[in-house]
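User: quick one, fold this
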Amino acid sequence: MTYLAEARAHLDKAREFLEAARDEHDFKRHSAAASSAVISGINSKDAICLKARRTTIKSDNHNQAVYELRMSGSDGASLASTFRRLLVLKSKSQYQGTPISAASARDAVAWAQRMYDVAATVVTRPD
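Assistant:
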């Protein structure tokens, strides 16, 4: 698969998880909404990095993932703090017993939307 095809595949996955996050939020499933938003954001990051750098790192190291995004041009750099905020919710929404608040879920969905919007612009931009 070419880097561009892989970027598009990650963008499609980001959209799918963003739609799931919105649906879960609508049904007041806040932890599921935040979890889906995080996954959407990760896929948006991968799409941006693939388009900008022709590669992406698969790592559980959140700092490394944020750094990689920051190094992926001005679009990636503009999203670094948004991505970091999303990643903070990863463990809480996916592994811990503490529920996610409605406000945190709403914020997560908004951050994932922002990341998706930028990723869609980056991936569809001509080289």
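User: anything notable?
Assistant: The first helix runs from residue 3 to 26.
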